[in-house]
Automatic annotation (TrEMBL):
<feature type="compositionally biased region" description="Polar residues">
    <location>
        <begin position="30"/>
        <end position="43"/>
    </location>
</feature>
<protein>
    <recommendedName>
        <fullName>Flagellar basal-body/hook protein C-terminal domain-containing protein</fullName>
    </recommendedName>
</protein>
<feature type="region of interest" description="Disordered">
    <location>
        <begin position="1"/>
        <end position="57"/>
    </location>
</feature>
Amino acid sequence: MNVNSAFNAGVQGLNKASQGVEKASLDISRATTESQQAESQTLKAAPPEAATGQAPARVDEAVVNLRVEQFNAQANTRTIQTADEVLGTLIDVRV
């Protein structure tokens, strides 16, 4: 694996982690909104999935996913830093 492909893999992983963080954040927001709506509705109201067409979001799963994506982002950031250091070392050796 060359330095360029390691750097690109790190960037792609970081982008994927960023998208995962965004999705988890939206799930947390949706779950909070659904919870507030459920509290304000009467027992005769339709279940939350009838209104949105989706299953109700779970805050606990979304928070776990958010934490997993944080670790993914950190790991990919380290990959990018390592590729940068290797490239810097290679340039210093060749000069």
